[in-house]
Design goal:
Blueprint: E1 3-7, H1 13-28, H2 34-39, H3 42-51, E2 56-61, E3 64-72, E4 75-81, H4 90-104, E5 109-114, H5 119-127, E6 131-142, E7 145-157
Antiparallel strand pairs: 1-2, 2-3, 3-4, 5-7, 6-7
């Protein structure tokens, strides 16, 4: 399938929110604090997608948003692919674009956070040359503050 990468636009927010919510639930339920699960509603994913349009690259397949990646500075914050496109290589394409964006911004090392129980994501990152740099507590933001989430920090040299 031909894939096209482009910067996200306001018109993509609903699609990004849908992909994000579905993928987040698949990878995080049972692996993050219940408090965070309760805070992550469909509305919050859509709202957060709207706030992050400028940091987002979408992958389109047949004119539809099939996945996205968000990059802020040297952090690859989000990498999600719609369920129907998982296993197609699309995640690797998005991750490579994120690495390119981090390098383009002048950072030599990219990093990302992954919950320890998300074995599928951890294997994916390791297959793509990322290494586990140790555990830390990620502060997941929400409207009233943050929730601490035990995570693993993965890193990769990009320059």
């Amino acid at each position: 399938m031909p894939v096209s990468l482009r910067r996200a636009a306001t018109g993509d927010v609903a699609a990004i929110g849908t992909v994000w919510e579905s993928g987040w639930r698949d990878g995080h339920l049972g692996h993050v604090p219940d408090e965070l699960v309760a805070l992550r509603t469909a509305d919050t994913f859509r709202d957060r997608a709207g706030e992050r349009v400028a940091d987002t690259t979408v992958a389109e397949v047949d004119g539809q948003v099939a996945g996205f990646v968000m990059v802020a500075g040297d952090e690859v914050e989000q990498v999600y692919v719609a369920a129907g496109h998982r296993g197609s290589g699309l995640a690797g394409t998005l991750l490579a674009e994120a690495e390119r964006l981090v390098a383009q911004a002048g950072h030599s090392v990219a990093w990302l956070a992954v919950v320890p129980g998300n074995a599928r994501a951890r294997r994916f990152y390791e297959r793509n040359g990322w290494t586990d740099d140790g555990g830390f507590r990620y502060e997941a933001a929400h409207a009233d503050g943050t929730v601490e989430v035990p995570c693993r920090r993965y890193v990769k040299q990009v320059i």
